[in-house]
Amino acid sequence: MHVDPTIIPAQSARPTSLAGRAASAIGFRAHRLASAAVAARVDIAIIMSITLLAAILRIWHLGTAPLGLHGDEAWTGLDARRVLREGWIGPYLMSAVGQPIGPLYFTALLFKFMPQTTFTLRLSMALFGIVTIPLAYAAFATMFNRTVAAFASLLLAVMMWHLHLSRTGFMVISWPFVEMAVLLALWHAMRLRSLALFLLAGALTGLGVYSYNAFYLFIPIPFIAMVWTYAARRSRPWRWRTLLFVAGYAAAGLAISIPMLLYIKDNPSDYRYHQKLVSITNSEEWKDADGPGEHADVVWKRAKEWTDALINGDRIDYGDGLATNGHPPLGRLIFALSLVGAAAALWNWRRAEHAVVLASLVLLPWGSLLTAGDGLFRRTFGLTPFIALLAARPLAWSWDCLLRLPARRRYLALLVLIVPAYLGV
Asked: Which of 57, 280, 22, 25 minimizes the C-alpha distance to 156?
């Protein structure tokens, strides 16, 4: 049989073509891995830089600034020593008129290996504040993007509100820490549709009840994220699976909360004592008010007192040591930026990440609005990462626009952004 010689090169070229395709596929995957590695290195560099800044600001002269020990700080140290003597002392104590004591056990751990000094006491809480910064970056990068996350974590690192309370022995510092851990786990759970991660997010939410009394205001927020996700599911099997995930999340949270729930059941009067003491219904203004209209006016005046102190710093809070004249916890610039971010969130309210941020603005301020007296800022402390996030949105947009400009205009625009930001912070 005669064989056409032109066929032979074509047959021999086929393996070469397959090899070329394989090499091309390997090259493409290698390029993707290299790009991911570069992105990971950038993430790590950003996180480490901002976290280092946060650590320096929170640890420098920690034992001497602020001067002396606040009464609530002293209780943290005394109760930590009690833990070292007795071990488990429960989930809640009547110290400082009643508070959850989860972070106290970490203070006791440090007391076991370090000198029992003011520095060590405050360090135990400062570490929660420091670790909150990379957690916020990771959570917001997952929910939004790396640029927003970088600006948000940077603003949180230098925000007077978060910085000041990070430098005290107040256990409230663990509240934003738990919030960021919950959102990070929950967003990965929703993206990967992983029951294990939903259980983890639920367990972290359960741990939050041991952080601070007002943490309960945060509990509806993860459910809002899950409801938005459920509503987005068009397939019936996926909707049923989402309900399973929500049930797992709730069950894990309840399981971790059992010690606190048992304490509340056995000691309802002790548990509610703090709430009754600081409740706005226990204030003279509320008692003197007549009818729902005047009661609403009392709440409105409290809201104005809180916002004025937050922005202008013209209402000294002796409980938190914040809002002295000229040193507002938030400041006008960050407040103005956060308003722009809130407008953007309202525009995109159908997306779960924006719904979560809006829910935080609606729910978390009530920690101060329904109470009286000092402690305005610790009772709304869970707002700090969300306000930083909202203020970061217009900054991130400006940064993206900046990168599109020619080099000379870019440097000029960067200067215009940095100077007012520095003066405002």
From this structure: 57
Q: What angle do CA 155, 201, 360 make, to 5 degrees?
A: 45
Contact 417, 398 (CB under 8 A): yes
Q: Distance between alpha carbon 222 and the CA centroid of its chain, in Å?
A: 12
Is 289 in a helix, a strand, or coil? Answer: coil
Distance CA 223, CA 14 (A): 56
Is-contact 179 156, C-beta < 8 A?
no
**Count of alpha carbons within 13 Å of 207, Cβ hemisphere only?**
18
Model pLDDT for residues 361-405, shown as the tens digit of each residue: 999 999 999 999 999 999 999 999 999 999 999 999 988 888 887
Q: pLDDT above 70 covers what percent of the chain?
A: 85
What are the pLDDT digits (tens) for 92-135? 999 989 999 999 999 999 999 999 999 999 999 999 999 999 99
CB atoms within 10 A of CB 169: 25
Query: Coil, strand, or helix at residue 204?
Result: helix
Nearest CA-CA partner of 368 in 161, 132, 160: 161
How far is Cα 249 from Cα 280, in angstroms, rounded to an integer? 33
Helices (H), 313-383: 332-347, 352-363, 366-369
User: pTM to 2 decimals?
Assistant: 0.89
